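Justification of resources, computational component.

The compute hours requested in this renewal are based largely on the per-chain cost of generating structure records like the one below. Each record pairs the submitted sequence with a full structure-token output. That output is archived, and it is also reused by downstream analysis tasks.
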Amino acid sequence: EELGLEPVEMEPIPPCAAENYGSALRFSEEVETTFLEEVPMGMVEGPFSEEQAAAMCGCPPDQLAVGALAAIDEGTKVRTIFDASITNVNDKIRARMKKKTTVPGLHDLMWARRRLKRRLPKQVRLTLFKTDASRAHRRIKVKKKDWKYMVAKTTTQTDSAPRVKFWINKVGTYGVASAQWYWGRMAAL
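The structure output for this chain reads:
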């Protein structure tokens, strides 16, 4: 089931909007700061009103899958998570994916090393290294037609009333099923 070998029998429930988790409210300033940092990088567009976000995504406001944001304090930073399971976005993605990727393991590494050693001259030494990209899932662009499935909403308290802002994710987003799949394929290349 995890590898997606079983055919999906029925159409998933359409994506919807969901309220943010309490952690997103507690860390609202950090979440907004992250989005503001990502705007110049082309990862996010915003802040917008709901109507502006819908216009940017090319759909009516009721078709925006405004996600349930969560925030996790990792000590050195606050990670923003877009819970695409509660908005039914992940179910829609999984229903259309023929198979999922798995991360290469030690066995794969040893197999590749053995094959390379056979093909290279003996004086050539192999060196293995590991890389880790910051914001790895957020390095893969998403088609504009799919932006509406990854809209985030932040709420900050002002003196007069809460201020709601909408942010459009234009890249893979932590918590959305396709982000890992596409990043895994890119990393494998």
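The chain has six helices and five strands. The CA atoms of residues 77 and 122 lie 45 Å apart.
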